[in-house]
Amino acid sequence: MSQGIENLFVENRTFPPSEEFVAQANADKSVYDDATDWKAFWHKQALNRITWFKEPTEVLDDSNPPFFKWFADGELNVAYNCIDRHLETQADKVAYHWVGEPGDELTFTYQDVYDRVTKLANGLKSLGVKRGDRVAIYLGMTPEIAISMLACARIGAIHSVVFGGFSADALADRIEDAGITVIITADGAWRRGSVVPLKAAADVAAARCPTVEHIVVVKRTEKAVEMTDVRDVWYHDLVAEQSTDCEPEVMNAEDMLYILYTSGTTAKPKGVVHTQGGYLTQVATTHSYVFDIKPDDVYWCAADCGWVTGHSYIVYGPMANGATQIMYEGAPNFPDNDRLWEIIEKYKATIFYTAPTAIRAFMKWGDDYPAKHDLSSLRLLGSVGEPINPEAWMWYHKHIGGETSPIVDTWWQTETGAIMITPLPGAVDTKPGSATLPFPGISADVIDADGKTVPLGGGGFLALDRPWPSMLRTLYGDPDRYVATYWSQHDGLYFAGDGVKRDDEGYFWLLGRVDDVMNISGHRISTTEVESALVEDARVAEAAVVGRSDPISGEAIAAFVTLKSGVEGNEDMIGELRTVVADKIGPIAKPKSIVFTDDLPKTRSGKIMRRLLKDISEQRQLGDVTTLANADIVQEIADKASTPSD
Ligand code: WT7
């Protein structure tokens, strides 16, 4: 038998959308039928949703796979689509309600965005930035981050946004790889009441990278910074005298729009390349159908523009659709654990999109925080970034969604550029923990190690068996690595690197990264399923499990568990939690050891670092952990894990 992944966790709850929601939804079931001719479907979306300078007649060029082209004879400008074309009908509509962490607030209309983007675009030109040049954006979540991305898009420069939580070294690696000439940064960024010294890090990076000619500095925190003559210029000085006349550059659909590095844990980061026409088509289409966006919605994607979620669903998708958004600068627990709920109440947010790691933190902090606020304006919730455990889904549904808002669990990747597997909220019954079905026009499969389809009911590897408009086109400067990483496992299939199972109705249940799958006595068991079983216990806030080598079973399951506020772990609980897993999944999945910890090691984007926990469990020397969001916790866990409970 070829190796798949076991399907053990059973979740039977189903949530159909309400009749009222269905009646007003942007997408009904007919959209799936509409997309049977998928190329025609995407062509129609491209023509209907985008204003082209030259409309594309070609749809997909697949003559040189896996280097696909979409709408290759089309011409457009992405910033024009996000701003200019809205001015005639909605210049005074709010584009962003921006909330600063210290409490300052700003509101930007579409006209304001136009004025700022054109001035910055002219400012960048005055620094010598030309079409095709690469610009790094290293900022916190202030309005300038979106403005800078759009200003680059307007003049045909390629942006590379580097998350503001990354170090000078990480920034320098990315600058070097892309040959960056200009960095846009700030005197600092607010994070949980203190200042992240962005400019100081940019200085260190620039010292290593001779390609950097200018650093543009946003004044945000009033923290003193060093300004190097000629090279460095204040953002406010740069834009002060600029005009708002700035013709948008006419771009080919396949010209590069941006590079975004995916944070590899050890290997050199991969510069994922996205282009213009196909990308904008798919982010606009998914943003409209998945988030059901209407003209009077107040939409909030609580991500950071340093990640692809911010690119596609804070900047390009929502702006192309002319949406009103909320943008928040800081941490969800500053000054207190109800900051996000306070913002939702104040601005009457209708749509809220966040990550499972955040939802599990909200659960841990307790139900009282959301209960203090009126969240009744919300009508749709979204989740992205990791598999969402059914218990966390139910909590989100009850405590944030008031048991009425549909939840869209959206599976996608930096590489896919836009949402790929997701419910259409007015057309698909949801199940807690399932991303449900491929988006119309998208095709996905569950395959075994030989690349053969696993029948419904079984588990295996997620593959995409047809190109899609917002797909990555290559890895910057490294086409061979693009082919090797994604296209060389099985002929003609894009290998996503995720485990997945499909239920009898064809719903997809993501099971975590393939590298995390455990092998227990010859059974391939997903970390997600065991973690979800642990999180079912009302005392558990979050859990991570790994397979550690075991002389008898090959691997034994080691669990790391954080408890809800106010709960103390003890020996009895360890026994009880093992029983919970045995009952939910089967005795084979019972953790051999359980360690209680205050936190779990996470990447800066909130993903649990299971590989590190595996090193701890197998008492290996720990590598560099400085890229983690919470490096301190690693030693603490290592100390506790050296006295395992078995
Ligand atoms: C990986 C991609 C897509 C924007 C943020 C992450 C995991 C993402 C889900 C989901 C289960 C998910 C996958 C994927 N992932 N969304 N709804 N259910 N897993 O982008 O950093 O490129 O990570 O995130 O493992 O491969 P990314």
Task: Tell me what the structure shows.
It is globular, with a radius of gyration of 24 Å. The chain is built from 20 helices and 29 strands. Among the domains are: 110-249, 3-Layer(aba) Sandwich (Rossmann fold); 517-640, 2-Layer Sandwich (GMP Synthetase, Chain A, domain 3). With 646 residues, it is an alpha/beta fold. The protein binds 5'-O-[(S)-butoxy(hydroxy)phosphoryl]adenosine. 5'-O-[(S)-butoxy(hydroxy)phosphoryl]adenosine binds at residues 262, 307-309, 384-387, 409-414, 435, 496-498, 510, 513, 605.
Question: What would the CATH topology of the domain at 110-249 be?
Answer: Rossmann fold
Major sheet: order of its strands? Answer: 5-4-17-16-18-19-20
Query: Which cofactors or ions or other ligands sit in this model?
Result: 5'-O-[(S)-butoxy(hydroxy)phosphoryl]adenosine
Mean pLDDT figure: 95
Look at the helices and sheets and give the structural class.
alpha/beta
Pick out its properties.
binds 5'-O-[(S)-butoxy(hydroxy)phosphoryl]adenosine, single chain, globular, GMP Synthetase, Chain A, domain 3, alpha/beta, 29 strands, Rossmann fold
Quick summary:
The mean pLDDT is 95.
Secondary structure: elements and pairs:
Elements: H1 19-24, H2 30-34, H3 38-49, E1 60-61, E2 69-70, E3 75-76, H4 78-90, E4 94-99, E5 105-109, H5 110-126, E6 134-137, H6 143-155, E7 158-161, H7 168-178, E8 182-186, E9 189-191, E10 194-196, H8 198-208, E11 214-218, E12 232-234, H9 235-240, E13 251-252, E14 256-262, E15 270-275, H10 277-290, E16 298-301, H11 308-320, E17 324-328, H12 339-347, E18 351-354, H13 356-365, H14 368-371, E19 380-383, H15 390-400, E20 407-409, E21 444-447, E22 459-464, H16 479-486, E23 494-502, E24 508-513, E25 518-520, E26 523-525, H17 527-536, E27 540-550, E28 554-563, H18 571-584, E29 593-596, H19 610-617, H20 632-641
Parallel strand pairs: 4-17, 6-7, 6-8, 7-14, 8-11, 11-12, 16-17, 16-18, 18-19, 19-20, 28-29
Antiparallel strand pairs: 1-2, 3-13, 4-5, 9-10, 14-15, 21-22, 22-23, 23-24, 25-26, 27-28
Helix pairs in contact: 3-10, 4-5, 4-6, 4-11, 5-6, 7-8, 10-11, 13-15, 17-18, 19-20
